[in-house]
Amino acid sequence: MLTLYVGDLHFSGWSMRGRVAVAEKGLPVAERIVELDWPIRESPDGVLFAGDGTDEREAGIGCACDADELAEADVEGILEDSAMSLLPRVPILADTETGAVAGDVVSIAEYLDEIAPDSGPSLMGTTRRQRALVRSISAWASHDLPYLREGASYARSLRTAPGIPGPGAVGQARWLCDVVSGLLGRSGGPFLVGDFGLADVMVSTYFQQLRGWHIGIDDPAVRDYARRLLERPSVADHIDQARAIYRAIDEAPTGSPQWILRHYRYHPGKQLLHDWQRDRCERLVNTTAAEAVRLAYRGLDLEQITQTLAQTYEVPPERVADDVTTLFARLSPV
């Protein structure tokens, strides 16, 4: 059985690449999400800092994740003896039948082509020349566009109002378009190396970023390529799923406990709420607050939460009401 470990769909552009590659091959796969960017340190005054790890161990390929979170998702223990237990990051593809573990998108694509050469497109290409070109494009897309990756991020591109691109992002977007134009001219299209493959997977996140950040594309051929790429089912389906978390906010009654909490991720074990849009974390400091949040996630309104807590702790409802109202007022994003 194949298992794909990915990060939060609305955070991780690397996970998008892994998911698109696997989807293109059409193989049955189990997917496990390892949540990213939970706070890892706390200042003396109680401020929580989100992040993946110390800068000197930050992943350059893939999204670094917490080793314990990854181990918890690895219920078969297949990652335990692999290099990925030392280099925790997503995406990771594991094969329980062979024991193989692929820990970056290029390795994932190569493994998929090896085990299923006749299923879906040949991600790495069909000739030595194509494979060399695909690896070269993939390396460039992985390493050489940091201003675009950070200044017009994939995560923010999924929001309705991502903001203004950072310094250098637009310039690298132009470079991306120039390179894509040249590759299309050499291959004849419709994709970068002719047929769809890993090279297109690697730039798919960037063209989502250009679209989400409203960075225009001047070259008509590149505009057409971007449209084909983003309309491809494997890419479009991923982006639709990644945006689901924002649709969930819009579907809840504004101001309700559900609407408030849908602005957060919740980690029950750490008793932490993370508002990823404002990079703000809230620690639930007592069991009553944690229970109020749990009840809200079950769909109860403020009155129902108050009554339930009053019955649970055998106190008058009016004694609970102020605490419940204050909690959700503090958590409210507006």
Strands ordered across the widest β-sheet: 2-1-7-8
CATH class of the largest domain: Mainly Alpha
Q: Name the shape in a single word.
A: globular
Low-confidence stretches: 50-54
Distance between the termini: 45 Å
Helix fraction by DSSP (H/I, runs of at least 4) = 40-55%
CATH T-level fold name of the largest domain: Glutathione S-transferase Yfyf (Class Pi), Chain A, domain 2
Give your account of this protein's structure.
It comes from Nocardia puris. GO terms for molecular function: transferase activity. The chain has 334 residues and is of the alpha+beta class. It contains 15 helices and eleven strands. The protein has helices spanning 13-25, 67-73, 105-115, 128-143, 146-151, 154-157, 169-187, 198-212, 220-231, 233-242, 244-251, 257-261, 287-297, 302-313, 317-331; strands spanning 2-6, 29-33, 39-42, 48-50, 63-64, 89-90, 92-95, 101-102, 265-267, 272-275, 280-283.
Short structural summary:
With 334 residues, the chain is of the alpha+beta class. It contains 15 helices and eleven strands. Strand 7 and strand 8 form a beta hairpin.
Keywords:
single chain; alpha+beta; 3 domains; 334 residues; 49% helix; Glutaredoxin; globular
Secondary structure topology:
Blueprint: E1 2-6, H1 13-25, E2 29-33, E3 39-42, E4 48-50, E5 63-64, H2 67-73, E6 89-90, E7 92-95, E8 101-102, H3 105-115, H4 128-143, H5 146-151, H6 154-157, H7 169-187, H8 198-212, H9 220-231, H10 233-242, H11 244-251, H12 257-261, E9 265-267, E10 272-275, E11 280-283, H13 287-297, H14 302-313, H15 317-331
Parallel strand pairs: 1-2
Antiparallel strand pairs: 1-7, 3-4, 5-6, 7-8, 9-10, 10-11
Helix pairs in contact: 1-3, 1-8, 1-10, 4-8, 13-14, 14-15
